Amino acid sequence: MTLRIDKYISNATDLSRVETKRFIKAGEVTVDGEIITNPAQKISGDEEICIDGSIISKAAHRYFMLNKPAGVVSATRDNSHTTALDLIYEHRSAELQVAGRLDVDTTGLLLITDDGQWNHRLTAPRSDCQKIYRVELATPISPDYQERLANGVWLEGEKHPCLPATLEVLDDQTVLLSIAEGKYHQVKRMFAALGNHVKALHRRQVGGITLDETLEPGEYRALTPDEVASII
């Protein structure tokens, strides 16, 4: 895979594309010791890139967790709602993407990255990445919920039942639900299939990444190396 030299430098530094092109055209950028003056020159990223003799470190992928508030959509752009990326104040934020969406009224852990392969590992149907939700229900749970969820609930319009899910009862109308899939509106549809209605939904955990309880709604932080590595 190749990349334009001006985009590579902009990604790896705080320089804008305009500023980067200015340095290149001024002859202040070298690739493996050779001066280049064409901003569109393609590189592989393995070369030694220097500006005015200073080596540029390779741009590292970025990973964040956001405590998503209700009313925020898990999208890059939306004409009607605040998006998750509107809450991320980072250089080159347009390159970030949501990894595993949440409904507009669902709150909690939302992961954001510019690493497409990591995103795929997290969201691929066969990833078996467990997701834990705190679910507030409209009516008290029935004693058979745990068994029915463990056996796989059938959702309307689906050809196959859901994978087995586990349920931890917190009180008669609040539970922790653990699932390994990400079907459309899955949690709400699962409880609808059980004859109940989800009043509030909050995601607490994805794989080995647990929402940082110090984050207020709308706040975010970078993931630790261990958190990033937990998605394999």
In the predicted model, the low-confidence regions spanning at least 5 consecutive residues are none
Structural class: alpha+beta
Number of helices: 6
Integer-rounded radius of gyration = 22 Å
Task: Please tell me the total number of domains.
Answer: 3
CATH A-level architecture of the largest domain:
2-Layer Sandwich
Overall outline: elongated
Integer average pLDDT: 91
Report the sheet with the most strands, covering strand number, pairing sense and barrel closure: 9 strands, mixed
Labels describing this entry:
alpha+beta, Structural Genomics Hypothetical 15.5 Kd Protein In mrcA-pckA Intergenic Region, Chain A, 232 residues, 19% helix, Alpha-Beta Plaits, four-stranded antiparallel β-sheet, nine-stranded mixed β-sheet, single chain
Describe the protein's architecture and organization:
- With 232 residues, the protein is an alpha+beta fold.
- It has 3 domains: 3-55, RNA-binding S4 domain (Structural Genomics Hypothetical 15.5 Kd Protein In mrcA-pckA Intergenic Region, Chain A, Roll), CATH 3.10.290; 60-127 and 220-232, Pseudouridine synthase I, catalytic domain, N-terminal subdomain (Alpha-Beta Plaits); 130-206, Alpha-L RNA-binding motif (Alpha-Beta Plaits).
- 19% of the residues lie in helices and 29% in strands.
- The protein contains 6 helices and 17 strands.
- The strands form 4 sheets. Strands 7, 10, 11, 12, 13, 14, 15, 16 and 17 form a 9-stranded mixed β-sheet that branches. Strands 3-2-5-6 form a 4-stranded antiparallel β-sheet. The chain has a two-stranded antiparallel sheet with strand order 1-4.
- The model has no long low-confidence stretch (mean pLDDT 91).
